[in-house]
Amino acid sequence: MAMQANDHRRNVPRAMGDNQRRQGSHSQGKQGSRQTKVLAKGVDIAIQTEQTAGLLLRRVSSRIRQRHKKSLEPPDRTLLFDLNRSVALNHSRVSQYIEQALDMPGEHNGSNAAHKMMLPNGSIVSSVEAPLSDRDKKLLQGCWKEVQKDLIEFGVDLFVRLLEENPPLRELFPFGKLNLSPEKLRQNADLRSHGLRVMETIGTAIEGLNEWDLIVPILEDLAARHKVYGAVPQHFNPLEQALTYSLGNGLPPKVFTNEVQGAWLNLWKAIATVMSDTMREGRGVFEKHDEGPISARDKRLVQASWRSVEKDLANLGAGLFVRLLEKNPAIKNLFPFGKLNLSPENLKDNADLRAHGKNVMETIGTAVETLDNPGKLVPLLKDLGARHNAYGTKPEHFKPLAEALIFTLKDGLPPKVFTAEVQGAWENALKVVAELMSEAMRSDDADVGPLSQRDKRLVRECWKVIQKDMVNLGAALFVRLLEKSPPIQNLFTFGKLNLSAEKLKRNKDLRSHGQRVMSTIGAVVMGLDDPDIIATILEDLGARHQMYGAKPEHFPALVEALMRSLKNGLPPKLFTPEAQEAWQNLMKMVATSMSKTMRSGSSEDEGPISSKNKRLVQASWKIMEKDAVNLGAVLFARLLEKNPSIQKLFPFGKLNLPPDKLRQNPDLRAHGKGVMETIGILVASLDDLKDIVPTLKELGARHNSYGAKPEHFPALVEAFMFSMKTRVSAEVFTAEVQEAWRNVLKVVDVTMSTSMSSHSNGASDVTISPKDKQLAQGSWKFIQKDLVNLGASMFVRLLEKNPGIRKTFSFGRLNLPPDKLRQNPDLRAHGKGVMLTFGTLVSGADDLGKIIPMMEDLGARHKTYGAKPAHFPAIVEAFMYSLKKGLSPKIFTPDVQEAWRNILSVVAVTMGSTMSSDESGVSEEESTASPISPKDKQLVQNSWKFVQKDLVNLGAVMFVRLLEKNPSVQNLFSFGKLNLPPEKLKQNPDLRAHGKGVMETIGTAVAGLDDLGRIVPILEEVGARHKIYGARPEHFPAVVEALMYSLKQGLSPNVFTSETQEAWRNILKVVDVTMSRTMRLDENGNSEEGLISLRDKRLVQKSWKVMQKDSVNLGAALFARFLDRNPSIRELFPFGKSSVPPQMLKHNSDLRAHGKGVMETIGTAVDGLDDLGKIVPILKDLGTRHNVYGAKPEHFQPLVDAFMYTMRNGLSSKEFTPDVQDAWENIWKVLAEVMSNGME
Fold it and tell me: Distances in Å between the alpha carbon of 791 and those of 149, 845, 882, 897, 1079?
């Protein structure tokens, strides 16, 4: 009960002057001392029983104790009032102790006399010491010094032991119902927190052994509260055994002696006696028999005032929520009506807010009616807390809710009804409500949340079987739904076909939709332990389905259809009555969450945008569209100015122009105009939202591929509203019009966001129409005839128009002019590979489910090379340019172009989804954050200035050290096989050259530390190449040790400090991780052996069996073609120096013999593909020998072209398929790489 100053003064004598107080009797001093102790203890009780007392109470307690130390006089009137008022505001019951203390008689019979004190519940207690001997007290207090060093672990041991040895007690604790193993139970946050609180309470008892009369009320209050939770006297014995076990387990034998153990048993007996008596008799400071956690007086006051409250529930409920949201903006997102950003006046009239407010007031009324029945009240409030937890409510929200309710009642009820006393009673009642509901929210308990643990378990068991047949179960669901609910048929395209049940069940659209619905249900099932996320998903789903015409009243039919589908599709042993009930509870939760956002909007039949809002928006647009270009320019200038992180999404955003110049940028103005025109289309279509929903979803999917995210919409809306406010007169853009625009833009936000956030579901929201498939597949027949040139044209265009992307490609870093770039073999090979990937997509367009994972994997891999979703628009433009230039207008018609754009949108969306986030949920920004600190970069780069002055010697020392300390590595190097002593090895020219090359590569890495995106592909390529030579990830520690040794030997201690050494280790760790990634096999065993995949090996080896049957003729044709197409190479061969035409040359005996030899060498390489370590030395030696003959690395590409031409013409199309051709090109790339190294 909150006390008033006047009430308090009745209990406090008038303040006396200092002189008068000093003249007080000795007995008064003793009385003051006693009062001060009681008051201080009252504060301790408040702190013990009510955490919200907090710092203020501790300060008051400290002030009292300090005064007590200085004087035995009673505290003055001001201090007492301060204490009383502070405590009353935080824990009204403690104020009863203070009142009692103020009326306490003096201790006239001496300090040892037992002092009688009447407690607020009417009982009399004596100021006696605990029923323990002085010896026991001393032993306990000494032992407690050790225990309090680790209260948490003692508490954990206590409760793990208690629950393990007494399974029936598990039901009393939320963490006990989780059925966790002892190891997991020990880590449970709730158990650890509860164990700490219990040990702290025991500590309070031990500290108060000499003031047992003040400990008794704490124990009685504790017993009364635990009785409400189901505790009974019989539980003290197992609790004592668990405590003894915990102490014995955690304390040394020297501390926890038999004598100490006996003292603990005596203390526990005293505690159990007091608490058991309270449980049996209903005694307690704060509780009378069956009174529950709220006093009888408070109940009476609350219930009496409720009669006035219930007369106007709707208005009081509305006032409550207007106040709550106005004072606590952070809570707004928990309510659909809170997200509308309405003014308080408009918010109070919002139909959803009023309905919700009334519901809440009715629930409060139910609680008020059951105040006299704790057995009903406690479960009611805990269930309410669990349900609200699912909607995102937190314990810390209760304080602002209580403040809003008190404010509303005070404002809405007459002063005669809502007196200070009544207010105090309401505050006390609300604290109990908050405590019980918060307990359910904080718990991981199975029986809290929308579903019990039993329900979750039953639902998940069913789901294991359901997910194996989602398509058929989903189809059965919708067939039943449409059959039993004909009015719903018009909501679905497949429902309008009037098909028979059998044909409907086979309909592709129905089956696809049914699968998506079942997948969504699966997401809910899998996320039942994270209700915050599930509630958000379901509310968003409700908002989207409302746009399609779904209504809350459709849920019963949907649930019936689902239950029928599951009943027919699952075994009876699995889908038991208990499981059916669990599924009913699950779907009730789904319906409740989705219905919340379905009901938002002004009327049931208007959809998400009211007629009034439509009219206001359309009327204002007629004026706005006259200035669309400037409005769009202001919009984007504002957007980029206020949101720098979004700038990178736009080419004009990367220019870093000031707002004035940015506003005049032609690209920005064109883009802004386009956006405003799109908004105009939306405005014109507001009367038929169903028509524009697909457009908005497609728009969302496209923007997602450019890097846009749902969280960007608030910034865009703010910029739009700013633009309108700036350029449109106040008479037009009134507050009402602004509100209307916000509602319209909210619909745009919700609809576009759905297609932005759904890409993890594969093809669920992104599809390709049959027409687009047909057009793209028809044009592909012409495209595939010239893949190399079209791919080359595409990449030349891409790099020419987007210089920023150049660094992503090795050929892009060469800075070649377009003509030379088009002939670059790496570019042509890469372009062809990309075109083939597009071909795979087109051929698989009839089964997106199969190719979606491939594209997602492709996106994830390209992310590691530095590709980003923002690159897709440029790639699409380059691809379309290439096709437009390479195909005739009759083939590449506008319809075909549009089809390809749609296809590429699917590619962008799908690949972009794995580029923009890791599977772990780490954002792109986080995942691309540099793993190297700025300090490490600086230290390494500074030291490199000294390293680079002596690369040759440092590299030589490094490799001598490496081979000396790691003999097993010697065979990887030609100079390692020479078995030279260290001195001679250090002077070996091959070792010195190799060491220098490695140091230069390290230098490249050091120079590129500020742009890891550029050097990661280089390091990965180096890793792949070294794998071919037999290097393995496990070799890196030895290499790092050798390098560090070399640097330590070659640099002065002033340069190569311990800090610099640590920085180098961090840098080398990144190099290790990056190179190792391309050395390791993937989990499927299908990754590359170096640069050759298992699939390529098999295709090449299979085709070679055919080729070797005619190796002589094929070899002759190969060299005839090679020399014919490359006259400058002729002089390298004796048979090439004659001017014989190709047809005659291939019959030359020398040429045929040489061709046969080359084909045999190729055969040796093919046979050794499964053990590259063996053939690498052979190929390197071959490269060295050919270098002597004048062969150069640049000769390989013409040779490969000749080989491919010969095989293509010499083998049948069934034998030399495009896949086989690609595999051979990959093999040749590796052969050329290894031999080229031998040449160098």
Answer: 71, 21, 8, 17, 29
pLDDT in tens, 535-556: 767 776 776 677 667 888 888 8
Bridge partners of 1092, per DSSP, are 1089
Residue 8 has a pLDDT of 32
Is the separation of the CB atoms in 450 and 390 below 8 Å? yes
DSSP string across 693-746: HHHHHHHHHHHHHTT--GGGHHHHHHHHHHHHHHHS-TTTS-HHHHHHHHHHHH
Quick one: average pLDDT of 634-640? 91
Estimate the crossing angle of helix 628-642 against helix 666-684, to 10 degrees: 110
Residue 900 to residue 891: CA distance in whole angstroms: 12
Tokens of 745: 């833009």
Residue 565 vs residues 477, 517, 562: alpha-carbon distances, Å: 5, 13, 5
Using an 8 Å Cβ cutoff, are 733 and 620 in contact? yes
Segment 20-33, tens digit of pLDDT: 333 343 444 444 45
* CB burial of residue 95 (10 Å; 0-12, 13-18, 19+): buried
763, HSE (Cβ side, Cα atoms, 13 Å): 21
> In sequence order, what are the residues at sequence separation of 6 or more whose Cβ sits closer than 8 angstroms to the Cβ of residue 612?
602, 740
Angle subtended at Cα 427 by Cα 371 and Cα 40, rounded to the nearest 5 degrees? 110
The closest of 1157, 1230, 1159 to 1196, measured between CA atoms, is 1230
Count Cα neighbours of 390 within 13 Å in the Cβ-side half-sphere.
27
CA distances from 420 to 307, 415, 586, 942 (A): 17, 9, 44, 73
Query: How many Å separate Cα 465 from the centre of its chain?
Result: 28
Average pLDDT, the chain: 77
In sequence order, which ranges of 350-414 are alpha helices (DSSP H)?
351-369, 374-390, 398-412
If one compares 252 and 222, the residue with the highest pLDDT of the two is 252
The residues with which 126 forms a beta bridge, in sequence order, are 116
- Cβ–Cβ contacts within 10 Å for residue 13, how many? 9
The span from the first CA to the last CA of the chain, in angstroms, equals 92
Placement of tokens 């604790």 in the chain: 173
Which tokens hold the place of 138? 């001393």
Q: What is the CA radius of gyration of the chain?
A: 40
Confidence (pLDDT) at 695: 74
Q: Residues 182, 188, 193, CA angle at the centre, nearest 5°?
A: 120
Q: Does the structure show a pLDDT above 60 at 684?
A: yes
Question: What whole-number distance in Å separates Cα of residue 834 and Cα of residue 861?
Answer: 14
Nearest to 377 by CA among 429, 316, 423: 429
| Look-up of token digits 């106007």 | 312
Nearest by Cα to 432 from 611, 242, 224 = 224
Query: Phi-psi category of 1148—alpha, beta or left, where left has phi over 0 and alpha has psi -120 to 50?
Result: beta
CA 1101 to CA 1204: how far, in whole Å? Answer: 15
Question: What does the pLDDT read at residue 128?
Answer: 43
pTM for the predicted model, two decimal places:
0.29
- Smallest CA-to-CA distance from 1170 within 1122, 1112, 1227, 1208 is with 1227
Distance (Å, rounded) from C-alpha 200 to C-alpha 183? Answer: 23
| Alpha-carbon distance values, 136 to 142, 259, 266 (Å) | 10, 8, 8
Give per-residue burial for 774-791: e unless 16+ CB within 10 Å, then b. ebbbebbeebbeebebbb
Tokens 């749609």 belong to: 902
Residue 472 pLDDT class (50, 70, 90 cuts): very high
Helix (H) or strand (E) holding 1010: none
766-795 residue pLDDT tens: 467 777 888 888 888 889 888 889 999 999
